[in-house]
Amino acid sequence: MPAITLVIGTRNYSSWSLRPWILLKHLGLPFEERLIHLETPEFASEVPKLSPSRRVPALIHGDVRAWDSLSICEYANELSGGRGWPAGTAERAHARSIAAEMHSGFQALRGSCPMNCRARGRSVRLTPEIERDLRRIDDIWSECRRASADRGPWLFGEYSAADAMFAPVVLRCRTYSLPLEHMSRQYCETVLGDPLLGEWLAAAEVEGVVVPSDEAG
Ligand SMILES: N[C@@H](CCC(=O)N[C@@H](CS)C(=O)NCC(=O)O)C(=O)O
Question: How is the chain split into domains, by residue range?
């Protein structure tokens, strides 16, 4: 079995890299990391050799190439024998839908509240667009948690790719102190208490890189 390599960007900023990274970790799939800092000459020269989209994350596994966070999560699900999504058909459809909604949506929130793992105490003006994104995220989390409360602490009880896709959103909520309802706040506590997220955050603390586009943030 060839080794899996996951190409990721700067931990502090690369929310898309965090998603498959934490899912692979939760599924117990061993992999090597190749970290290339964003907005560096190395990124410009190396990433085109590793990722057809010229973006991170990208996964290399023998002859297999997968790029784009959600497709890497799908590949990890296959490698794990289907443990990346909930077991029931209806819950799988639900989990895939909210993961896809995250992947393609919430532009207002994402644009105004970029992930910065190290940052705390930032404020943002809650425009109607950001409010709308936030209310939808709050509804997604609260509805999932109400339905799965007796089966474990994650969105569908056990950890799934849906939790991985939302992990960076929880970090944004912390950095920008975004208001959430009780069930969602509890879910954020679960995510922030995840030792595997702690591993990522500890590494982000010491990487010491500031990308130029964050200097104003
Ligand atoms: N839709 C892609 C987005 C990937 C993406 O935008 N990655 C950023 C880092 S978080 C990147 O590679 N930026 C470098 C660039 O665009 O040149 C995914 O889900 O993986």
Answer: 4-82+207-214, 89-199
Contact in structure between 22 and 73 (CB atoms under 8 Å): no
Of 60, 37, 61, 40, which is closest to residue 49 (Cα–Cα)? Answer: 60
pLDDT, tens only, 65-117 = 999 999 999 999 999 999 999 999 999 999 999 999 999 999 999 999 999 99
Is 57 near ligand 1, meaning CB less than 6 Å away?
A: yes
Mutation choice for ligand 1 from 45, 56, 104, 165, CB with most ligand atoms inside 8 A: 56
Q: What is the pLDDT of residue 36?
A: 98
The CA 181 to ligand 1 mean position distance, Å, reads 30
Length of the chain: 217
CATH architecture of 4-82+207-214: 3-Layer(aba) Sandwich (3.40)
Instruction: Give the distance (Å) from ligand 1 centre to CA of residue 215.
Output: 19
Does the beta carbon of 114 lie inside 6 Å of ligand 1? no
Cα–Cα nearest to 210, from 88, 68, 90, 37: 37
User: What would the DSSP string read from start to end of 106-121?
Assistant: -HHHHHHS---TT--S
The CATH topology of domain 89-199 is Glutathione S-transferase Yfyf (Class Pi); Chain A, domain 2 (1.20.1050)
Digit-coded pLDDT (tens) for 111-132: 999 999 999 999 999 999 999 9
